[in-house]
Amino acid sequence: MRLDKYLKVSRLIKRRSVANEACDADRVSVNGKPAKPSKELKIGDTVTVRFGSKLVTVRVLALLQTTKKDEAGLMYEIVSEE
């Protein structure tokens, strides 16, 4: 699954266009490397997103095409929040 779609479906970022902008601004990295929106994710990958001064790192647990709001949190496990 594409990184930008994963960020939207998992509700880490609200809109896919915002996810694209975050990737283009180097605020998203996968496994420690800056990632483009088209990066293909696999289960077990580590995604780090910078929201202003906050840094959130999650581990990918599931790749679902669509999900309900209350099930979105099951797609990832929070590794750290700084």
* Range of helix content: 10-25%
Order of helices and strands: HHEEEEE
- pLDDT averaged over residues: 93
What strand order characterises the main sheet?
2-1-3-4-5
Give the total of beta strands: 5
Alpha-beta classification? alpha+beta
The shape, in one word, is: globular
Distance between the first and last residues' Cα: 26 Å
Task: List low-pLDDT spans.
Answer: none
Overall tally of structural domains: 1
**What is the fold named in CATH at topology level?**
Structural Genomics Hypothetical 15.5 Kd Protein In mrcA-pckA Intergenic Region, Chain A
Give a quick account of the main beta sheet: strands, pairing sense, barrel closure. Answer: 5 strands, antiparallel
Q: Calculate Rg over CA atoms.
A: 11 Å
Quaternary form? single chain
Give an account of the 3D structure.
The chain is an alpha+beta fold. The chain has one domain: Structural Genomics Hypothetical 15.5 Kd Protein In mrcA-pckA Intergenic Region, Chain A (Roll), CATH 3.10.290.10. The protein contains two helices and five strands. The protein has a five-stranded antiparallel sheet with strand order 2-1-3-4-5. A hairpin with a 2-residue loop joins strand 1 and strand 2. Helix 1 crosses helix 2. The longest helix has 9 residues. The radius of gyration is 11 Å and the shape is globular. The relative contact order is 0.23.
